[in-house]
Write a structure and sequence with these properties.
840 residues; alpha/beta; 3-stranded antiparallel β-sheet
């Protein structure tokens, strides 16, 4: 027994460490551990040779000194492992953003450290908006390129060869990135007054445009208040806004459109603030109505952001050309509370139901003051060590963390977390430069802060202990103003009748929730509204001159129709015809796709039913607007066939070069057939080594695949509130899979998560609101297609008699239907079945 125990322990550690020490780069950096591993490796290979020669288990105890050798090897491995962990810790201390990576990722970066070009894929892990860095021919860094394709030149070239170690040049890159943004912002603030605003917008990066524009807005509004010219300034704001909305409707590049869309969102709020203050008769710059706004000041050659009595330094973290949230009264209140929390040196804790914008508002505030914000989806598997690693990273890098679904962490861990957070908050309050955290001395940057979001009570949620509650400032997030959000987003897409369209959208959902049946998979919340708005934006870009009510009706139909039961479809169509009287939808040309679907169905020996193709096209349209979707319905509802036939059809279109389509790679798994540890990954309780789960490996491979093919990860199995909650950050706008090891895997644009489920009776509202829904009913298929496919699959010997078989079946089926009816009415089933299965 002792031999087997030591053997298994030695084997597991050797498998983990062997690939690490096979890299020369890591061997050079920790020579003592590398030598100890080589000694152990020689012993292990000798034992393996002996065992291979005599593979019988009964012979193993007779191998000379086997137990002693294994014992010695394990002792060596313990030394190696401790040395390796210490080595990784020194690297993390040198460049604190490494704390947000798993050990495996860090080892991969370090093993490629000599070649900066091979570290490129990992830049995005440390700097979220940086897709890559452009190098000169001398391998020096010269330009940042964002995820959206925006370029920002660095204010000085960085030569990685000069510093050598990867953590040193990454730290230098962080400093130079911030200096470069400061320089560009300084130039843009000066340039603002030198040319028309519409031309100025197109000259600068998106983030800089918003920052510099806000600086001038603050200054101009303050002057207008003093000079009592708010009404005139409100008219000026309106003119500026109309000019840039007209630009959205013109010819623009994708980057310029993104910049202007984000600016419209901010400008609409800026105009509303001015108009409101004008109506309230504000004429003192110290009036609370003005102080309560987020104001930007260029002072002491840097940017400062103030709100009421709180002040924050603008962080100059590069955020790319990303979109911004619509600022509703709820967003404003959340900003005020969170900025107040920063001022009082507390964390922030937005709490409220699913889809009210808790995480997104926290992220948006981090964008407003340009600070790195790490979003992490908490699960019950997190322990105090994993949380401690996170907190070290936050303190030393000055970043924010937003822990999503924080109350899923177990109570015993939360009480330790309270001490960890308190330790950081005290160090910030005392304005210390270095502090002791869990026995380690760390530097601390005072912008570091912790935010937590919570969903009130359902499965797998715990109450926060009082000592933890005291460290956070609560914000109650309730239902946001859908009409206002809809109007401003449509406005930024270039809709002229934005207000009417937004009202019709909100009214549609209100009537649906009142008149249609109540189903587990129906959701009419914020995320459903946003899905329709996205679809409306896509349609506006495609059909610029089409009537806006036609586009809105098309968006509402495409996003919502797939999820309704047959009985609700006529009611839904009735609601739309009342709200959009006389509007007729033009047919969409799906001829190429339909031909490919027919060919794919014939190959799979499936019948080309109209209802089948209709559902496939609904699935295709849903993939375009949502990256997470569920096919809901009982067995034999055509769910799996829809996915496989659509995948084959898209592959055929790609082969023929039609519709600009790409091939599909799809990975299928049953999440309930394995444990949570096997699905997501788990730590070995003895050796503390991390073992990846099936989903973690599949997701990572799909995310790293740079080919243009579509990647679909299909979960064919029941959904419950336990395993799916770990996917919350994957299914919302963060698009990140968070593993307990600390690894965060970003989903790529070509990936889609699909779930095939019978019902959503035990799924939480958080899950339902995050996914697009397509409802499939077995009754729409009937028995005939099954018979046709069965007859097609018969051997050639039977083919001449196919008609005879069909006649016999036609004679029997009416009786079969009677039998099924009798069973359903008079008998009890131990295991429930579907009518179609019984006939089959």
């Amino acid at each position: 027994q002792s031999i087997v125990d030591q053997w298994l322990k030695c084997q597991a550690k050797w498998l983990y460490l062997e690939p690490i020490f096979s890299s020369d780069e890591i061997g050079k950096q920790i020579p003592t551990e590398a030598a100890a591993f080589n000694t152990m490796d020689t012993t292990w290979r000798r034992i393996m040779d002996v065992v291979q020669a005599a593979p019988k288990a009964v012979d193993a105890p007779n191998v000379e000194n086997l137990l002693e050798d294994l014992d010695e090897s394990n002792r060596q491995l313990d030394i190696v492992e401790k040395g390796l962990n210490d080595f990784l810790d020194t690297k993390k201390m040198a460049f604190p953003r490494f704390f947000f990576l798993s050990n495996d990722e860090l080892l991969e970066i370090l093993s490629e450290g000599k070649d900066p070009l091979r570290v490129q894929p990992f830049m995005k892990k440390c700097f979220e908006a940086v897709q890559k860095v452009e190098f000169t021919e001398q391998i020096t860094m010269k330009t940042i390129v964002s995820v959206e394709g925006e370029s920002v030149p660095l204010c000085k070239e960085i030569d990685p060869a000069e510093t050598g170690a990867v953590e040193k040049w990454m730290l230098e890159f962080e400093d130079v990135m911030k200096d470069s943004l400061l320089k560009v912002t300084r130039e843009s603030v000066v340039s603002y007054t030198e040319k028309p605003r519409e031309e100025w917008i197109l000259d600068w990066p998106g983030q800089v445009v918003i920052g510099a524009s806000q600086v001038h807005w603050t200054e101009e509004v303050t002057n207008a208040i003093v000079e009592r010219g708010l009404k005139a300034y409100g008219d000026k704001s309106n003119t500026q806004l109309t000019n840039i909305v007209n630009m959205v409707r013109g010819e623009l590049t994708k980057l310029q459109r993104a910049t202007i869309s984000a600016l419209v969102t901010i400008d609409v709020h800026a105009r509303d603030v001015v108009v409101q203050m004008s109506q309230d008769g504000v004429h003192d710059p110290k009036d609370f109505k003005w102080l309560a706004q987020l104001r930007y000041f260029w002072e002491d050659d840097t940017l400062k952001v103030r709100m009421i009595n709180a002040e924050a330094q603008y962080g100059f973290e590069y955020l790319g050309n990303s979109s911004r949230l619509v600022i509703t009264p709820l967003t404003d209140r959340c900003y005020r509370t969170l900025m107040g929390a920063i001022h009082l040196n507390l964390g922030g804790a937005p709490a409220g139901p699913a889809g009210t914008g808790k995480t997104e508002t926290t992220k948006d505030l981090s964008k407003a003051i340009a600070i790195q914000c790490v979003v992490f989806n908490c699960s019950d598997g997190l322990d105090y060590k994993a949380m401690g690693k996170f907190f070290k990273g936050l303190a030393a890098s000055g970043a924010w963390a937003c822990f999503d679904e924080f109350n899923r962490i177990e109570l015993e861990v939360l009480s330790v977390v309270a001490q960890q957070v308190l330790c950081i908050q005290r160090a910030v309050a005392a304005k210390m430069d270095r502090f002791i955290f869990e026995g380690v001395e760390l530097r601390i940057i005072h912008t570091a802060n912790v935010f937590i979001t919570m969903n009130p009570g359902y499965a797998g949620r715990s109450e926060l202990p009082d000592n933890l509650k005291a460290l956070f400032r609560d914000v109650a997030m309730m239902v946001p103003d859908y009409a206002m959000i809809g109007e401003i987003i449509l406005y930024s897409f270039g809709y002229l009748e934005a207000r009417d369209m937004a009202r019709k959208l909100v009214q549609t959902y209100r009537l649906c929730s009142e008149q249609l049946s109540s189903q587990d998979h129906y959701d009419y919340g914020m995320r459903a509204v946003i899905a329709v708005l996205r679809a409306a934006g896509n349609l506006k870009r495609k059909f610029v001159d089409e009537a806006e009510d036609v586009l809105m009706l098309r968006a509402l139909t495409d996003v919502n129709l797939p999820k309704f039961l047959d009985q609700d479809v006529p009611l839904f169509r009735g609601i739309l015809s009342d709200l959009f009287p006389g509007v007729k939808l033009p047919e969409i040309d799906y001829d190429n796709l339909n031909d490919a679907l027919r060919n794919a169905s014939a190959k799979a020996k499936l019948q080309p039913l109209d209802t089948f193709f209709e559902k496939i096209i609904q699935l295709y349209e849903m993939i375009i607007v949502r990256h997470g979707l569920m096919l809901v319905g009982e067995s034999y509802g055509m769910k799996s066939s829809c996915i496989s036939v659509l995948a084959d059809a898209l592959g055929e279109l790609n082969d023929k070069g039609l519709n600009g389509e790409q091939k599909v790679k799809y990975y299928c798994l049953n999440p309930k057939s394995i444990t949570m540890g096997q699905l997501y990954g788990a730590e070995d309780p003895v050796s503390k080594e991390w073992a990846d789960g099936i989903l973690a490996v599949t997701f990572r491979n799909a995310a790293r695949d740079t080919s243009p093919d579509r990647k679909w990860v299909v979960f064919d199995g029941p959904v419950d509130a336990i395993w799916i909650e770990n996917m919350n950050t994957v299914l919302d706008d963060n698009k990140k899979l968070c593993l307990v090891s600390g690894e965060i895997i970003q989903m790529s644009a070509t990936m889609t998560m699909m779930f095939e489920v019978e019902d959503l009776a035990v799924a939480s509202p958080a899950t339902v609101s995050r996914c697009g829904m397509i409802y499939m009913e077995p009754t729409t298929m009937g028995y005939t297609p099954l018979l046709d496919s069965y007859l097609q699959s018969l051997p050639d010997l039977f083919q001449p008699h196919v008609d005879k078989f069909r006649d016999i079946f036609d004679a029997v089926v009416p009786g079969m239907e009677g039998i099924v009816f009798f069973m359903r009415k008079n008998l009890k089933e131990t295991v429930t079945t579907v009518d179609t299965c019984l006939v089959k």
